[in-house]
């Protein structure tokens, strides 16, 4: 028996429809705990300030730097810089620390404190040098104000910062350095204190106040210090000098002037002593008139002396011409001088007439 093979026709496979992909697919109603939640980036302004000092600052200056670090949660610390290094090394240090601003404290003779504020992004600058005066730290002041650590401050500037060109530049530098970036990881989402920059007596006065109420009630927190601007440079710690303070006098020069004034005071005192010794009389007093009367106690001798003095005075008065005679002689001399002048004028006029 043979098998019969029948040719069976193959059925065509059903075609699938092409559905366009949705760009925003709907999220599943539930997610597992292992899935990573996508975070939206809010920290956009990533300003980082490198705050450090050079060797040679005093304890008060170190406490001020510590207070500034406390007020700036966006700072980056760094160990002390050796004094043998040049200031251009700061740009490399900022690049290694991923900072775009730098605040350097530089001490001189354990007395004077200078502060540098610079924009170090690409070493383009600008940078400013200040002399810090009248330093008062938070621990020293013991003010009643208080603010949250890491909170964001308001920056208040005097109206002069919008008038003078060099103050406009410093204002922008202060805003980028002192202001805490929004949504910074180490900052708190509160605004409870304000920094005031006041331009007075050709200096910038810094104060930190706590905001007590919305109607403007303030209470000082500290620290407080005065910035005396010295120079503004084109680059970061280098470059050409854009602006220089014409009224700036270095602290060493001021101390030199005070020492010289004290020295002049001492020299004047010594000169007065020498003059007093040179002009001091040998006798305690000059001789009084008729002092010989008191040398003898005999009344007869005293009467004789008095009679002799009276006789001597009479003789001197007789020798002197009376006042009326003296005035008469003066008048005669004056009249004679007038007559001589008239005669001379007459003689001159006669000569002129003869010549003509």
UniProtKB/TrEMBL annotation:
Main subcellular location: nucleus
Similarity annotation: Belongs to the BRX1 family.
Brix domain segment(s): 47-238
SUPFAM superfamilies named among the record's database cross-references: Class II aaRS ABD-related
Protein name as annotated: Ribosome biogenesis protein BRX1 homolog
Gene designation: Dyak\GE20628
Tagged with keyword Nucleus: yes
One GO MF term: rRNA binding
Organism (species): Drosophila yakuba
GO annotations of cellular component type: nucleolus
One Pfam family it belongs to: Brix
GO biological process terms on file: ribosomal large subunit assembly; rRNA processing
Region (Disordered): 1-37
């Amino acid at each position: 028996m043979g098998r019969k093979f029948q040719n069976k026709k193959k059925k065509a496979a059903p075609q699938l429809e092409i559905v366009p992909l949705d760009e925003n697919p709907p999220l599943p109603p539930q997610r597992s705990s292992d899935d990573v939640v996508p975070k939206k980036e809010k920290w956009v302004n990533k300003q980082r300030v490198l705050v450090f000092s050079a060797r040679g600052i005093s304890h008060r200056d170190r406490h001020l730097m510590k207070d500034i670090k406390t007020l700036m949660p966006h700072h980056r610390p760094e160990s002390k810089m050796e004094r043998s290094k040049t200031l251009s090394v700061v740009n490399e240090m900022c690049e290694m620390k991923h900072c775009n601003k730098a605040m350097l404290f530089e001490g001189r003779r354990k007395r004077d404190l200078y502060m540098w504020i610079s924009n170090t992004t690409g070493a383009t600058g600008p940078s400013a040098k200040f002399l810090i005066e009248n330093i008062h730290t938070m621990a020293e002041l013991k003010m009643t104000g208080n603010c949250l650590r890491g909170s964001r401050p308001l920056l208040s500037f005097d109206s002069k910062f919008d008038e003078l060109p060099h103050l406009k530049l410093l204002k922008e530098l202060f805003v980028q350095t002192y202001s805490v970036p929004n949504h910074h990881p180490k900052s708190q989402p509160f605004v409870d204190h304000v920094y005031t920059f006041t331009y007075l007596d050709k200096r910038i006065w810094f104060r930190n106040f706590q905001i007590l109420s919305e109607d403007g009630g303030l209470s000082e927190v500290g620290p407080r210090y005065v910035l005396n601007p010295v120079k503004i440079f084109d680059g970061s710690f280098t470059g050409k000098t854009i602006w220089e303070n014409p009224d700036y006098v270095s602290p060493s020069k001021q101390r030199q002037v005070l020492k010289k004034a004290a020295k002049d005071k001492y020299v004047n005192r010594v000169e007065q002593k020498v003059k007093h010794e040179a002009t001091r009389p040998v006798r305690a007093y000059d001789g009084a008139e008729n002092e010989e009367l008191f040398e003898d106690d005999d009344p007869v001798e005293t009467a004789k002396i008095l009679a002799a003095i009276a006789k001597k005075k009479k003789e001197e008065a007789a020798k002197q011409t009376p006042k009326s005679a003296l005035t008469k002689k003066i008048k005669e001399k004056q009249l004679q001088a007038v007559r001589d002048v008239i005669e001379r004028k007459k003689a001159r006029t006669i000569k002129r007439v003869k010549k003509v």
